[in-house]
Amino acid sequence: MKKFLVLFGFISASLFSQQKTNTTNKNFALVIHGGAGTILKENMSPELEKQYTDKLNDALKAGYDTLSKGGTSVDAVVTAIKILEDSPLFNAGKGSVFTADGKNEMDAAIMDGKTLKAGAVAGVKTIKNPITAARCVMDKSQHVMMVGSGAEKFAKTCKCDTADAAYFFEQKRWDQLQKIKKTEKTELDHGSSIKASDVEFNDKKFGTVGVAALDQYGNIAAGTSTGGMTNKKYGRVGDAPIIGAGTYANNKTCAISCTGHGEFFIRATVAHDVSALMEYKGLSLEKAADEVVNKKLKEMGGEGGLIGIDAKGNITMPFNSAGMYRGYMKSDGKKEILIYK
Amino acid sequence: MKKFLVLFGFISASLFSQQKTNTTNKNFALVIHGGAGTILKENMSPELEKQYTDKLNDALKAGYDTLSKGGTSVDAVVTAIKILEDSPLFNAGKGSVFTADGKNEMDAAIMDGKTLKAGAVAGVKTIKNPITAARCVMDKSQHVMMVGSGAEKFAKTCKCDTADAAYFFEQKRWDQLQKIKKTEKTELDHGSSIKASDVEFNDKKFGTVGVAALDQYGNIAAGTSTGGMTNKKYGRVGDAPIIGAGTYANNKTCAISCTGHGEFFIRATVAHDVSALMEYKGLSLEKAADEVVNKKLKEMGGEGGLIGIDAKGNITMPFNSAGMYRGYMKSDGKKEILIYK
Predict the structure, then answer these.
(1) Domain residues for A291?
(2) Shortest CA gap A160–chain B (Å)
(3) Residues of A with Cβ-Cβ distance to B263 under 8 angstroms
(4) Which residues are CB-contacts of B177 (< 8 A; sequence separation ≥ 6)?
(5) What values do phi and psi take at A56, rounded to 5?
(6) B91 in a domain, yes or no?
(7) In chain B, which residues have pLDDT < 70?
(8) What is the ipTM of this complex?
(9) Mean pLDDT of all residues in chain B?
(10) Which of A187, A322, B109, B164 is the most exposed place for a label (fewest CB within 10 A)?
């Protein structure tokens, strides 16, 4: 497998000096993903590739800056996810795909590994950054999950930015919907039969963004945000807003954000399963994540991947699909942004 | 703690003979709950107690009959839950509590331990038996979770019975809403401060019904159904429809249905955690469930309980609240229906 290595090297001296003034002498790091799926180099133009890697880099840097200035892992997760949500490239926030009704219905979740508090929203249509609504639910309510217009109403408590349908309209996503409607009339009953090779078409299945971070205080957190599935019907909810499936964080083990064919991730309780393998079987983060993604999920037929971090700053980014937009940045100077296997 | 033992004894000879004609010589069993909470004998009238135990008995018998006739564990779960949903006594189906808007919004989930297939619905208002809609999602769609009107629309695929607001109107539940509205103006921001001692008032927090079953073919399944939380706002969703939190089944380990303060059950991924303790740490069903309910959940402040069954027919019914409506019936003739500690 050929690695597409965009960046690898030491962080600038200025970042290190900044870190020292705020540090508790602990390392910090974050890892991000922008979705997994049939992402093949032969189908990707150099221009599009650069757009993806640039945006992943922006998100990594913003999250890293938050951590280096003493921000919490929850702060870093929200900061980095907002940047990905604001980009039309990823299936979350502005770039969200369309439902069968031509609407954008978004889901997001966040979990704090220190407190095991969590917040999630599903089926929101008017929140510019759904991850901020998820954080609002976590911080300001006694609840974990809110759906639909109720979630939107509650997000006002935190003055979350709203946006109208025009903001979320992306021609590319609209064209995807029309294309899928033609080929996939009864997706729900018969599953997808689409085998198109172009990137933008295929990423409709697995488009999601997610971040996991370790802060200077030794606390980890994870968040996930998605526009769901193109042409989705019947108020379908995937794994992203399901705590334990697409999103989970626990200081004792790991912080995980998943991306992939959501139904399998729910049935396999993927994020919590990685945590449980670490807690109860003593596996390392890498081995636990590999076991779940490349064995358990694969045996079920579940395509996708995840990113994870533990309280020591170890990072993992396994996937069983052709590609996954991903990257990490650590206080020891290591940084990578990758797309293909 | 005084046990309230309603029934204990051998099943009639007729049931045994029926079992023999269909059996694969395997044992079968089911276990049910009707919610956990501040259920104290001193607050319960003999008449109400009898109503609860009679209805639990009806559900147990119906589920048992399904199993004895060769029905699957999924069949038995649906059969028994429907009986509890049709009773105004429990916070599910007909007896569902009211939201802050004076509506009934119900959630349900089911999972098949043999296939790891699962189905869930949240926020449905017009489905007479939400568990049948959850099964419809599991059996007839490629999805696991559907919410709101989309879920209701999809349930038509399976011709699930519908019901209007008048069917779900129960004066007792309406009065509960008015009472709670008076004392709990800002529940979401400040949590509940209600310490009322009467059963009907307190069960609003933890009302849920659930069933776990083992069939003659050695397969287990679990299902949960709830009307949610009285006076709930903002489209809040609890643990019942969250696979891995309130509901989970896996032939390798256990089938679990939870009831309690849902937010804690989501954050602790309770149902999957019991399974993980069995799979990865080799704990028995009873020890795993005790660890989660009486240690992990209790330390977090999470009140409630669960019922569970494994593929050998072992049963557990732990709870850390004052009481839990519960019972089981096994092909070896053992049967119990209990309410208090």
Answers:
(1) 29-340
(2) 15
(3) 142-144
(4) B97, B98, B100, B102, B230, B231
(5) -60, -40
(6) yes
(7) 1-25, 184-206
(8) 0.89
(9) 88
(10) B164
